[in-house]
Automatic annotation (TrEMBL):
Annotated region described as Disordered, given as residue ranges: 552-576
Subcellular location, record wording: Cell membrane
PANTHER family cross-referenced by the UniProt entry: MANNOSYLTRANSFERASE YKCB-RELATED, MEMBRANE PROTEIN
Signal sequence region: none
Species of origin: Dyella jejuensis
Topology in membrane: Multi-pass membrane protein
InterPro entries: LipidA_mod_glycosyltrf_83, RgtA/B/C-like
Superkingdom to which the source organism belongs: Bacteria
Name of this protein: Glycosyltransferase family 39 protein
Amino acid sequence: MSTNSYRRSEVLRGLWPWLPLWTLVALAAIFSHGPMPLYSTRTLAVAWEMWHEHHWLVPYINGEPYSEKVPLLFWLIHAGWFAFGVNDVWPRILEVIFGGTQLVLLSMLARRLFPGRPWVVKAAPWMLLALSYAFLFGLQIMYEVLLADCVLGALLCLAPKPHRAEPRWLLFGLLIGAGLLTKGPVMLLHIAFPWLLGPLWNDWAREHRGRWYGRGVLAIALGLALLLAWAIPAGFSGGEAYRHRLFFTQTAGRVVNGIQHDQPLQSHPHWFGWYLIWLPMLLFPFSAWPRAWAALGTLRRPLDSGVRFALCWLLPSFVLFSVISGKQWYYLLPEFGGWTLLLAGAIALLRERRTALADNYWLGSWPLGIGSVLFAGLLFALPYLAQGHQLHSAWAEGAAPYSRTFSVLFLLLGGLLLIRGRGEMRRVAVAGLVGALALNTLFTLTLWHKYDLAPASALISAAQAEQRAVAVEGNYEGQFHFAGRLGQPITELRSPAALQEFAGQHPDGLIITHPEELAPSALRYALLAQPFRSSWVVVWPAPALADLRAGRTPAEPAQPPRVFPTATMTQYGAQP
C-alpha cells in the first residue's frame, strides 16, 4: 500500500464508529418533528422569501431587508432547492452535514495539535458529540454550526502539519471570509486569539513572528474583502436604512447595550457573569464527570502545544464574550470544540502522569449514573404524581403516558455509567448522546403540538390565496412564512388604533393574536386557536376582534372556531 493510501485508510478508520453513530442519531432526532419555531422557522422564512421574490443578494423577511444575518447559509439552502425543489428536508440534512463536518474537523485538529497522543485524537470527537446542549441546538436550522465549521477549518490552517509548519494563509483567509458571510464580524472574535497568541503555542510562529503576523493580517484582509464584496452591493441594493443597520447598528447594538436604533434589534443583553453561570450546563455531561475536573485541576507544566492552544483560544475568548453585552448560549458554540480539546488533552496528561487518579473509581462517571437512575425513578413515578393535575405542569401531565418507557432507558444508561473499567469516556459520551436523543423524542411526543404551527400557517396561506390581508398584533418573527409558503407580508399592529384602522380597511382580513390564556370570546368568535409554547395563537376575523376591543358585540360567526388539539383544552381552562 502506498503512503497516501495508508494515510487515507488511517483517516477512515479514525472516523469509525463515532461519525456513523452521530449521523444516525442526529438524523433520527432532527426528523422526529418539524422545524422549530422560532429559530428554524425564521431562517426558513428568510430563505423562502429570498427564493420566492428572487432576492439573491439581500436577505428579506416579511417584505423588508433583513440586516440581522449575512447570506451564506441561505445560499446553501437555495443550492439544495435548485436541485431538489423547495422543501424543509434539505435544510435539515444540511445541518446534519455541518455537524458531521465539525466532528471531522475537530478530529483533524486534534491530530495536528497532539501528534504524540493518539488518545486525544480518538476522544475529542466523542466528547464533542456527547455535549447535550450542542447536540440539541444543532437540530436547529441556524448559523452557528456552519460558523463552527468555518472557525475550526480556519484554526486547522494555523496548526502545523508533520511536513509543513507554516500555516496555509490563503485557505485561512478564505475560511475567515466564509465565516464572515455566515455570521458577520463575530467570526473574527472566534479566531483572533489563537492567531494573536500564536507564539505561545506554535513553534513556527515563535520563530517567524514577522511572517506570522504579516501574512495573518493579509489573510484577515482577504476575509474582510470577501465580506465587503457582498456587503457593499447589498447595502446599495437594500436602501439607506438597511445599509445603516448592516454596517453599524446590528453589530454595535450587540456589543454595547444601549446603542440607539430605529427598529427592534435581537441584542439579548445579559450581565458579565452570565456565561460563567451557565457553562456547566453547556458542557454537560462532562461538567458532571469528576475525572474531567481532576484533570483540569492537576494541569502542570510542561503542557502540550495542544493544551496551550486551547487555553490561548478559550480563556481570552470567554472573557471577551462575557464583556460583550449581547449574550446567548449558542454564541459560544464554535468554542465547544476547544473545550473538548482542553478536556481531552488534560485527561491524557492525567493518564500519563497520575495513574492513580486516572484509575480512581470515585473520580469516575458514578455521579452521572446516580443522576440517571434518579431521573428514571422520577419518570417512573410521574403517572402517579400527575394524577389529579397536582403538579400543575402541562409538560409533566403530557409526559406521564410515555414516562415509564423512557424510565427504563435512563435506568439502563445509569447502569452503563456505574460500570467500572476501561472505556469510561466513551460510556459517558454514548450515554450523553442517547440521553439527548431520548429527551428530544420525549419532547416530540409530549410538547411538539405546542410548537407545530401548521394549522395556523395553513389558514393564513389560504387567506392570502384569496387576496385577504393578514396582520399580527405585536412583533412577527416569520414563523408562518415558510410553512404557509406565504407570498405577502403580514402587517404588524403595534397599537389599538392600528388594529382598528386595519379592520376598517380590510373587512375580510385576519388578525393573529398571542394571548396568555384562551378567553371564552375566542371560542365563540375566532377562526382558529392553538397552543403555542406557554400561550396561544388565535386567528380572528378582523371585524370581530375590532368589535371586541371596542366593547361591541360582534356578529355571530357561521361556524365555531377550530381548536388544536381539542384534547388539551381542559388543561388550559379553555371552556366557553
